[in-house]
Specification:
single chain
């Protein structure tokens, strides 16, 4: 079961990275370079591994859900910052 979950996580990451790749074929609105795919892959892969670690190690269901929710919120905030620089940090290039 544990290894199947890692395979599912990796499959989801590959699927998510294929969305902008396919979108670039049909529109000029999506313009990702290799570094964009690399950073997105690192963020998604890291999130998947950390989430898998939490799911394996934390036994209490409520603690597990709170930790996973916190991870998800942090990833969403990081993604938004990298995309549009909403907080104005040096990460966004502003």
């Amino acid at each position: 079961m544990k290894n199947k979950r890692v395979i599912v996580i990796l499959s989801i990451i590959i699927f998510l990275l294929c969305i902008p790749l396919v979108a670039m074929m049909f529109t000029n609105e999506v313009n990702w370079d290799f570094p964009d795919f690399l950073v997105a892959g690192i963020i998604l892969f890291g999130t998947g591994l950390v989430s898998e670690f939490v799911m394996r190690k934390v036994k209490n269901f409520h603690k597990k859900m709170w930790i996973l929710a916190a991870i998800l919120i942090m990833v969403i905030l990081l993604w938004i910052e990298l995309a549009v620089g909403i907080f104005g940090t040096p990460l966004s290039g502003s």
